[in-house]
Amino acid sequence: MDETHSPPLALDQLPGHLIRRLHQIAVGIFLDESRQFDLTPVQFAALDAICARPGLDQIGLSGAIAFDRTTIGGVVERLEAKGLIDRRVGQADRRTRELYITEQGRQLLDAITPAVLRTQERILYPLAPEERRQVLILLDKLVSQNNPFSRSPIKGD
Amino acid sequence: MDETHSPPLALDQLPGHLIRRLHQIAVGIFLDESRQFDLTPVQFAALDAICARPGLDQIGLSGAIAFDRTTIGGVVERLEAKGLIDRRVGQADRRTRELYITEQGRQLLDAITPAVLRTQERILYPLAPEERRQVLILLDKLVSQNNPFSRSPIKGD
DNA sequence: ATATAATTGACAGTATGCTGATTAATTTGA
DNA sequence: TCAAATTAATCAGCATACTGTCAATTATAT
């Protein structure tokens, strides 16, 4: 027998594949729930972080929500084009762009928040209450302890 | 008091955000482990599925590993350009393109498999053995039961 | 048999998410 | 002080991941 080839891996049992699928599902539910607001999950995350920390620059925003710093450029550009944030040249450091949420941005954030909360409930809906607590603890453990290996590691406050 | 605005949500406690972060981390580990093979996670998944089911068409491949059918087009195009798969016009249905792994593709799949397995171990490394079993069970439950709501639901065999 | 439906794959367009290079501004160090 | 290193943002380029649309092909229904 010249059987030099290993059998294909069963993808649907690999953690990486399960994680990719779950992410795909979570994004799908988010877009379904917030269809009327024309905001992507990443745009929501950025808007939420800018609201929480006004005057943040783009690198700071990357660190706060773990985006690649190049990706953030396009995201804030689109948020600015929609009138949801302002971008001002930094006072202390003119290389930076300080980010501020606009009144319109605040109103959208308020309006979309219930949809975002419904999204989280729908994602976890298949699990029993105790399992939901469990999975959040395990996901948090995986994310925080693998954080150093991530491409865009979270910076602590 | 005219406090009409709710406080920003704590992103790092939202399931959707944790899932996005974990996916980002998993992809990063995959690319790190398989750097020398020049294959992305999605390309690996497609190659693995084509190996397991030779003659599959592109829609069938989408259904097997939950890709959008448009996304698959570019993926198989790049796999074909690298000489890892063949694409032939379907005999029974000339609309389809039947996908076959090449000998070169099989060899790459063999070579990359240990790296893919190491990737899975690194993803789960922060967890104790019992927690690893738990999280896989919970992820599988979330994925399979939310599958109908996904944009690219898995088709059963 | 033939008009209509549905299906496969392709294409255009948009939005992440990354690499690597470049520019402008600031900081460091000899 | 002034050249060198560093940093913030941008740009070009590539690969997912989705929407919609379209042409070619097949299935259906009268």
UniProtKB/TrEMBL annotation, chains A, B:
Q: Name one GO molecular function term.
A: DNA binding
Keywords in alphabetical order = DNA-binding, Transcription, Transcription regulation
One example of a Gene Ontology biological process annotation: response to stress
Q: Which SUPFAM superfamilies does this entry report, sorted A to Z?
A: Winged helix' DNA-binding domain (SSF46785)
Report the InterPro entries cross-referenced here.
HTH_MarR-typ, MarR/SlyA-like, Tscrpt_reg_MarR-type_CS, WH-like_DNA-bd_sf, WH_DNA-bd_sf
- Tell me yes or no: is Transcription among this UniProt entry's keywords: yes
Domain (HTH marR-type) ranges: 15-144
Does the keyword field hold Transcription regulation? yes
**Name of the featured protein:** MarR family transcriptional regulator
Query: Taxonomic lineage per UniProt?
Result: Bacteria, Pseudomonadati, Pseudomonadota, Alphaproteobacteria, Rhodospirillales
